[in-house]
Fold this protein.
Amino acid sequence: MPFNTFFSWVIKKRLHQIELFRKYPMEVQMEWFERLIAEGRDSDFGKDHGLGSVSRIQDFKKAVPIRNYDALRPYIDRLRDGEQGVLWPSRVKWFAKSSGTTSDISKYIPVTREALEDCHYKGGKDLLAMYCQNVPDGKPYSGKSLVMGGSSNIHSINDEAFTGDLSAIIIENLPIWVELRRTPNKEIALLDNWEEKIEKMALATMNEDVSILCGVPSWSLVLLKRIMELKGASSILEVWPNLELFMHGGVSFKPYKSQFEKLIPKTGMNYVESYNASEGFFGIQDTLHGDDLLLMLDYGIFYEFMPMSEFGKEDPETVLLEEVEIGQNYALVISTNAGLWRYLIGDTVRFTSKAPYRIQVSGRTRHYINAFGEELIIENADEAIKRASVATGARVNDYSACPVYMTDAQTGAHEWMIEFDKAPQKLEHFTKHLDTALKEVNSDYSAKRSFDLNLREPIVHQAPCGTFYEWMKSRGKIGGQNKVPRLSNERIYMDDLLSFVNDKKETVTE
């Protein structure tokens, strides 16, 4: 059977299943709740928490407290030491290495075979299925798929357990029919050193027929620019004329979109976002327009949603899918077929629709600025950066922001370090547009800016090109799983950035 015919058959079958959970969301979620409890009761965690006696969601909430990684870590450490049946009855061989917590440099998220098959791989197939439904004349699978893979190779923990970032684990376990249509080869895709990887990926792929690009926007841009440089091309379409789809996730696409449109000047180019993490695959952009994502309800995940007013309480309340309110921010709480039970992953989401259930990723429970009651989240910052860029003709590579606290002599402010791909003619004009946009997208910020009583105009520094890459590299934080800390309620990152930039200036002067 030709690949295109086979893929079309798979798509039709899966689209029918997606339509079912669109129509019957709570029934599908209840089915998964019951399946997770039935499977998980035989694990050590299930026995410790009496899952054998749980039949209702309310019983589940009473029996299992909400946990973050640090609270679940004793169970995960036992798994990493070689024990089995600790969080989930089936064998755990893989651990997805993710960015760390306050107590450790890295998190090690268990990845079961069920999670790989029923969640992570399913998400990739569903993204293509919905894309093909939206673009019936498209030919995304006519060429190769270029996947910006993991930032680390697979490493052994012991004789039977291995770790790497999630994309590396996925690439390591891909079925042969997918591997044949992917570029570059596994050896290059899983290189540790990102500078070496970019160079080898560029050389290995610049003569391929690439129709799909998949990865984190920032690193994908680095690769595209290097390929264009090597080929002497003015656009990536001179290299890959059949490129039609960029599947992205990990960070907001808003600050990067104008750069991609410059490098890929094609009317028929499509951009599709997914929301996936080491802990699971959660959402897919199921339309070509808009920026919300269909919440995927049949991936072996049972969802709860914690109103942000409950965040930080000793015994926080959560609501179920049918109880959510449009427009309210919720911290995401998941129970999964990888043995993560009532796990607080650290992301916040906001519902834009309940028929079907669509979400936007609104930020992080820890990445925000709320020094003056302004409750600035990443979504606000990304939108303000976008509006200021449009108004001034600028393009932003990266940014980071934090508070400047009040003194006896001055009110507070937000301090920004911004690296431009194309700088505005006057930085002060960009600053004013940024301030105006923040007022427009965040009423609390606007209120605190009234008459400069709490907050004065933002302080904006222009970082030299390459600053964020060099700064992250100096901290040992380059790679797909390491993201620039966009917002912080403390000054630790900004002070380090300012020091780093000043040291660079002094070195150049000398």
